[in-house]
Amino acid sequence: MDSRFSTRRLTIEDAPEIRKLLLLYFDEEVTSKCLQLSATEKEAFMDTYVEFVVPQGVSVGVFDLKSNEMCGCVFATEWNKFLHPGSYETGKHTPSLNKTIEFDEFMLEDMPRIVNNRTYLHLEVIIVNPKFQRQGLGVHLMQSFEDIALEKKFEMVVGVANTNKSVQLMKKMGFHLHNYVLYSEYKDPATGEAIFQNIPPPDTGAVFCYKVMSSKRGG
């Protein structure tokens, strides 16, 4: 990452830039794009991140020094404050968001066994604005995420990678991959429908990722 960028923890004052970046995320993130989240659902998602995730103080943004535009960010939650279905304002008016949340819960089914009562930092979402990609921001954000886990003396870092690009990033950062779920085979628990079967290659599935931390970055 070059010197025209700065990095810092996100605060509630960053809400306008956070919302801009999350709107880009909805255009890029494969499950949300496939299910075509409504404006109401996007607002519910963004409200949760601004009001519940960011105040925990463990999310990081990268900013362009000249424009102060947020170029990328990693949203994280602590092990005892992670997102769950009750964190969102959902109901009959948010059918697509409900399905994405259910999928997230499905991907985390084995987490309690793998974590085994250890403390951890949970990677919720990592985003890089497309116009700032290929500049090392993804790796830098992941390093910042791990640095926070070390600072907090958490024993593990965990998350779900759901694109080919994010899977490769997790591998590069030394994460273990567990339970790769093909989009073509996942069925919505309420309807039995293969709701992600139209997600095109190379994004073929999602996988739970975890890493045991050591005193040095690299786990």
Biggest sheet statistics:
7 strands, mixed
Total DSSP E strands: 7
Across the major sheet, the strand order is 1-2-3-4-5-7-6
Which whole number gives the mean pLDDT?
Answer: 94
Indicate the overall shape. globular
- Cα Rg: 17 Å
Compute the number of helices: 7
CATH homologous superfamily designation: Gcn5-related N-acetyltransferase (GNAT)
Q: What fraction strand?
A: 15-25%
Domain N-acetyltransferase: 5-198
GO molecular function, one term: N-acetyltransferase activity
Pfam families: Acetyltransf_1
Structure description:
This protein is an alpha+beta fold. The protein has one domain (5-212): Aminopeptidase, CATH 3.40.630. 35% of the residues lie in helices and 22% in strands. The protein is built from seven helices and seven strands. The chain has helices at 15-28, 30-35, 39-53, 95-107, 111-115, 137-151, 164-172; strands at residues 5-9, 60-64, 70-78, 120-128, 156-161, 176-182, 205-212. A seven-stranded mixed sheet has the order 1-2-3-4-5-7-6. A hairpin with a 5-residue loop joins strand 2 (60-64) and strand 3 (70-78). The two termini are 22 Å apart. The model has no long low-confidence stretch (mean pLDDT 94). GO terms for molecular function: N-acetyltransferase activity. Pfam families: Acetyltransf_1. InterPro entries: Acyl_CoA_acyltransferase (IPR016181), GNAT_dom (IPR000182). Residues 5-198 form the N-acetyltransferase domain.
